[in-house]
# Entry
Amino acid sequence: QVQLVESGGGLVQAGGSLRLPCAASGRTFSYYIMGWFRQAPGKEREFVAAISRSAGNSDYADSVKGRFAISRDNAKNTVYLQMNNLEPEDTAVYYCAAKFTTTIVALPTTPNAYNYWGQGTQVTVSS
# Structure
């Protein structure tokens, strides 16, 4: 089992940047595919980015490609979401998620594929 804690959210102007860390507990972090999702008021939770266990592969939602970057440091049990050129449409609660796997699988992009979730961190982008 793993516990996830996001941080780094806040209020930023359009065009600005934020970096969201997500710290994971436990000794088996390298066995988890990690993902970031977001949920705006009145909307469903949506996929943002995912990264493989070894960080050799990543995937992004079309809406954030070229602006966001996901990375991980397995030695620190932490996954990051670097968000650049933020837009008001990026305003949402951002969630870190983890999927345990002992095999090489495709990076999942649906919330129900992930086993563990953090509590979320609010990101607000003003115009």
